[in-house]
Write a structure and sequence with these properties.
By secondary structure, the chain is of the alpha+beta class. Among the domains are: 182 residues, Glutaredoxin (3-Layer(aba) Sandwich), CATH 3.40.30; 225 residues, no CATH class; 88 residues, Glutaredoxin (3-Layer(aba) Sandwich). It is 48% helix and 13% strand. The chain is built from 27 helices and 23 strands. The strands form 8 sheets. The protein has a 5-stranded mixed β-sheet. It has a 4-stranded mixed β-sheet with strand order 21-20-22-23, with helices on both faces. It has a 3-stranded antiparallel β-sheet with strand order 8-9-14. A hairpin with a 2-residue loop joins strand 22 and strand 23. Helix 10 runs parallel beside helix 12, helix 12 runs antiparallel to helix 13 and helix 20 packs antiparallel against helix 21.
């Protein structure tokens, strides 16, 4: 945003604001738990967290608020801190003329979403660090992302900008406040809903075909983001329409990402995004939500195609999560930084000489070929005062093709690569490591519960089931108030911040997936309870708002567009639609339809931007199926039917298990199952479509035949 948006009619005064009394304390961020806020605790800037104290001080002295929003693993947040917030000259201006507030966007998505909408509306773009200057009443006057200390590249500099804005506020506070109020009046949410039409689902698939990079996978040009929800949507559409092009798009992308530098070939897990169209040079941070979303996508692709590479990739992601990102007390950490000691990616780069030294000349040369390691490197890391070159490990051919090139069997080469990988990982762990943000976010852990639950079924791995159960128990026991309400963040034994709609939606979804893998009715009941709170407190006007009230912001926000993660309304729609399937209660379908209709106008303008919402829409458009299996819990015939039900890719089918020995436990949650019984003492499967259930099936062959995809 240009500051001139508000100041063009004004004559900027040459005087600066008179110095107001300084806060009695220095930097209050040292009292916070957020790793991002703690990173700024020693800045010379008199930072406040978002608090009543900060706004009271601003109102008392009529000082503007300087709001800076970011997160702990944000590269450009680090750059701006080093250039400006650690600089005494900039700090002097901020301390004299502003009340400065730091916000961790991962702790406070409500604040971030509202002011990101402001920035996008005024500048046409957003990103982090997000910089907002606003009145003591939280009315925005200026928005930008990264700002240098001194102006360059058509960006205003902090040293010039801050005195100008402070002076304008001294001379024209009423005019600026009035302009801001008029802007806010036009910013409110638009919920002019219309009835949803299924044609929008096909329209999104066609738009994605047009955007697809057939040579390298992914969509559009650089930079390329993983966007697992888009790939999941295409897999589901292929299942419904039998369109081979959609499956080919997904497979091309999954293989390209797995082979590329965006994937950590040694330590596993995906980096944030690729800076080029080839998936080679990543932005090196690793986010928890990317790992969870991509694990689900690779698992679904394996179920659909049987390609073992997809199962291996998912298993490797889980290995990374469990070994590096899991908190010993439970839950999963949020992210790992892109930078190590101020240099992006340095932990992950290799010299050819290192491979030869660690692996020996013969195997080192072979692995250098396999991972495309060159003597001169393929990436330059910017180091203060110099440029350090190194290699980002990536693959250009399949394992079988390389085995032929080396004259080895695929099994022998695979074993050699794994042995070499472990040695390289041991060496890499001796290097300085990137910072890890160890806070536990409820919503993101909900995503991990979903991924682990699916992994337990597809990979037949009981350890993943146990991890999913433990993560759910951690959230439901340690991240709740005494009244039973969810809390957003846990760190160092302290849970805090009332949960947002995102947390309720994603944890409810995780519990539904955990029910699918465990078949424990308690998990379904827990999901129902969270979903009831979600819709009672956050849903209104055909959408789901980020926060439950207007305590901290001028307006409530709702973001329907699916970004790095599926939007909260998209997940809420999925949860409601799945609960409609599982319980048979009409209110859940009605809630799903309200969200779908409320988003229709936005979806029409840009259907490919709502991939998860449209995938969930399939569940309420008459294409879903409900499968109820009744049997004795440990009986072989029951286990066989359940194995058939969960072994194939069935994104539009729900599964309920009624244990014959305690049938009332489930029928309380799903009354429509009350009349379903075992037939002649055999485990029986009831497949329901369009509110009508067919005759019970008692053999695995019958059920397998009926579960084949409908076209």
């Amino acid at each position: 945003m240009s500051f001139n948006h508000f100041l063009t009619p004004l004559c900027l005064a040459s005087v600066l604001m008179a110095v107001a009394p300084q806060p009695a304390e220095a930097n209050r961020l040292k009292l916070e738990q957020s790793p991002y806020l703690l990173q700024h605790a020693d800045n010379p800037v008199d930072w406040f967290p978002w608090s009543d104290e900060a706004f009271a001080l601003a109102k008392k002295h009529q000082r503007l608020i300087f709001l800076s929003i970011g997160y702990s693993t944000c590269h450009w947040c680090h750059v701006m801190e080093h250039e400006s917030f650690e600089d005494d000259e900039v700090a002097q201006l901020l301390n004299r003329d502003f009340v400065s507030i730091k916000v961790d966007r991962e702790e406070r998505p409500d604040i971030d979403q509202f002011y990101m909408q402001v920035a996008t509306k005024l500048t046409g773009q957003g990103g982090w660090p997000l910089t907002i200057i606003m009145t003591p009443d939280k009315e925005p006057l200026f928005a930008a992302t990264y700002l240098p200390k001194e102006g360059r590249y058509n960006r205003p500099g902090m040293l010039d900008l801050l005195p100008q804005i402070a002076a304008a506020w001294v001379d024209h506070p009423q005019k600026l406040s009035q302009d801001a109020q008029e802007f806010l009046a036009g910013l409110g949410p638009r919920n002019d809903s219309r009835h949803f039409t299924p044609e929008l689902i096909s329209a999104a698939a066609e738009r994605m075909k047009a955007d697809f990079d057939a040579e390298h996978g992914g969509f559009g040009a650089a930079p390329k983001f993983p966007r697992p929800h888009q790939l999941n949507f295409l897999l589901q559409r292929h299942q419904v329409d039998a369109d081979p092009q959609l499956l080919q798009m997904v497979e091309t992308t999954l293989i390209a990402m797995r082979n590329g530098g965006i994937y950590d070939q040694i330590g596993f897990g995906f980096h944030r995004y690729s800076t080029d169209r080839f998936w080679l040079v990543p932005h090196f941070e690793k986010m928890l939500y990317d790992q969870a979303g991509l694990a689900e996508t690779y698992l679904s692709a394996f179920q659909l195609t049987g390609n073992p590479v997809y199962a291996e990739t998912a298993a490797e992601i889980f290995s990374y999560l469990l070994q590096r990102m899991r908190n010993p007390q439970g839950g999963f950490h949020s992210a790992e930084d892109a930078d190590t000691q101020g240099v992006e990616g340095s932990t992950y780069l290799w010299q050819k000489s290192e491979l030869l030294e660690i692996l020996g000349k013969k195997r080192g040369e072979r692995l250098a070929q396999f991972f495309n390691v060159k003597a001169g490197g393929n990436f330059t890391a910017e180091v203060p005062g110099e440029a350090a070159q190194g290699n980002i490990l990536h693959r250009s051919k399949s394992l079988s093709d390389w085995a032929k090139s080396f004259g080895l069997t695929t099994a022998a080469l695979s074993k050699e690569i794994e042995t070499a990988r472990r040695k390289l990982m041991t060496a890499r762990e001796r290097r300085p490591q990137p910072f890890r943000d160890d806070k536990v976010i409820a919503a993101w852990n909900g995503m991990v519960i979903s991924a682990l639950s699916q992994g337990a079924i597809v990979l037949k791995d009981d350890s993943l089931q146990q991890a999913a159960e433990e993560t759910a128990d951690f959230i439901l026991s340690r991240m709740r108030t005494s009244e039973g309400r969810l809390l957003r963040r846990w760190r160092n034994g302290q849970a805090a911040i009332n949960a947002f709609a995102e947390d309720y939606a994603y944890v409810a979804r995780g519990l539904l997936d955990l029910y699918h893998s465990s078949l424990d009715p308690l998990r379904l009941e827990q999901a129902l309870n969270l979903a009831e709170t979600l819709f009672a407190e956050f849903a209104a006007d055909g959408t789901v708002y980020t926060s439950a009230d207007l305590k901290d912001l001028p307006q409530r926000t709702s973001e329907r567009y699916d970004g790095a993660m599926p939007s909260t309304p998209s997940i809420a729609l999925e949860v409601a639609a799945r609960l409609a399937q599982l319980t048979g209660e009409p209110k859940w379908k009605a809630r799903a339809e309200q969200l779908l209709d409320g988003a229709t106008n936005e979806v029409k303008r840009y259907p490919q931007g709502f991939s998860h919402l449209l995938a969930a829409a399939e569940l309420v458009s008459g294409k879903s199926r409900e499968l109820v299996i009744v049997g004795r819990s440990q009986a072989p015939d029951t286990r066989q039917l359940l194995e058939i039900a969960r072994s194939t890719y069935q994104p539009l089918m729900s599964l309920l298990f009624v244990a014959a020995e305690k049938q009332a436990q489930l029928t309380k949650l799903a009354p429509f199952t009350q009349g379903m019984r075992m037939v002649n003492g055999q485990a029986s499967a009831y497949l329901c479509e369009n509110q009508s259930c067919g005759k019970p099936l008692t053999t695995a062959a019958e059920l397998s035949a009926r579960l084949k995809p409908r076209r």
